[in-house]
From TrEMBL:
One of its GO terms (cellular component) is cytoplasm. The keyword Magnesium applies. GO terms for molecular function: ATP binding; glutathione synthase activity; metal ion binding. Its EC number is 6.3.2.3. The gene is gshB. Its cofactor is Mg(2+); Mn(2+). This is Glutathione synthetase.
Length: 329
């Protein structure tokens, strides 16, 4: 297959095998299977002669290290079999503009994971409200008075910005906190910016879990993301804060609730964050699968498991269009 990874600018600039980066694990595993793999960033996307193009370069794996070539080619996106669109948030106007270009790609020729339409239309924080039975109580608003009312009703809340990642800008607030006005005004920029406000789930004291959703299935492997001593939430990607996480029956059953809708939306890869078997976030832009940590905790090769499932899915989809098999085994 001919594959393009559109990754984060920092990952592209410092392109080497960083074991914390999911994109690099997947890139290497596809290369090991004799695929032709290219890499680019979203700002390299362009339109020429009314067709979607991208400046990109080939990657290669040598002596257990990942490299990219120096030369850039401006290649029509319709020439790829698969495009993985995985830049990190924030989902700002440049991110949205990139999805417009990707939406021009001919779907009968090229598969894009995840769908640019889904990324544009489904906010990672708001997406949980498509599944209210497994979501915590929440409101979405910029109205400071509405937030105060929600705080009074629930006693403890968490305020989240809608378009950031890595727990940036997330606040915990309890009823009676003397900093209530300051925190609410800071989070909403004095009532100008819409935020999500969720009820505080007590299970966060043990950490939230990252469930791995691939091709309609929640894998049996996950990590428990434990908060640092000076914070209520996980915000540091290191071994001491990532523990073995056992998936409960309730969490496994989540796939039965969400898989049909996610498939319809074009979401094939997602990171589901859960507390007390409630989904607090559905990561669909560039979900981290914590491959290094899960491999160590479970004694497996998660990258192979993920790519096996992706290949089966891709092969099925492309076979429907091309009436032939395109995946290398």
């Amino acid at each position: 297959m001919k594959i393009l990874f559109i990754i984060d600018e920092l990952e592209y600039k410092y392109f080497e095998f960083n074991k914390l980066v999911t994109n690099f694990w997947l890139n290497i595993e596809f290369l090991r299977r004799s695929n032709e793999v290219f890499v680019a960033t979203k700002n390299m996307l362009n339109i020429k002669d009314s067709l979607p193009f991208c400046f990109c370069t080939k990657t290669y794996f040598k002596d257990y290290e990942l490299y990219k070539q120096d030369n850039l080619e401006n290649i029509c996106l319709n020439g790829f079999d698969v495009i993985f669109f995985r830049p990190d948030p924030p989902v700002d106007i440049n991110y949205i503009n990139a999805t417009y270009i990707l939406s021009m790609v001919k779907s009968e020729k090229t598969l894009i994971l995840n769908s640019p339409d889904a990324i544009r239309n489904k906010n990672e924080k708001l997406y949980i409200n498509d599944f209210p039975s497994i979501a915590p109580k929440n409101i979405v608003t910029s109205d400071v008075n509405l937030i105060r009312e929600f705080l009074k009703e629930n006693n403890e809340i968490v305020i989240k910005p809608l378009n950031r990642c890595f727990s940036s800008g997330v606040f915990y607030l309890y009823h009676g906190d003397k900093n209530t006005n300051t925190i609410i005004n800071t989070a909403t920029e004095n009532g100008k910016t819409t935020v999500m406000v969720q009820e505080f789930l007590s299970g966060i004291k043990k950490g939230d879990k990252r469930l791995i959703y691939i091709c309609g299935e929640i894998l049996e492997y996950c990590v428990q993301k434990v908060a640092t001593n000076d914070d209520f939430k996980f915000n540091e990607h290191c071994d001491k804060n990532l523990k073995f996480g056992a998936i409960t029956k309730e969490e496994k059953n989540i796939e039965n609730i969400i898989s049909k809708k996610l498939e319809q939306d074009g979401v094939i890869m997602a990171g589901l964050d859960t507390i007390d078997s409630k989904i607090i976030e559905i990561n669909i832009t560039s979900p981290c699968f914590f491959i290094k940590e899960i491999n160590s905790l479970y004694g497996i090769n998660l990258e192979k498991i993920i790519v096996d499932k992706l290949e089966n899915y891709i092969n099925k989809k492309l076979k429907q269009e091309h009436k032939g098999v395109l995946v290398n085994y």
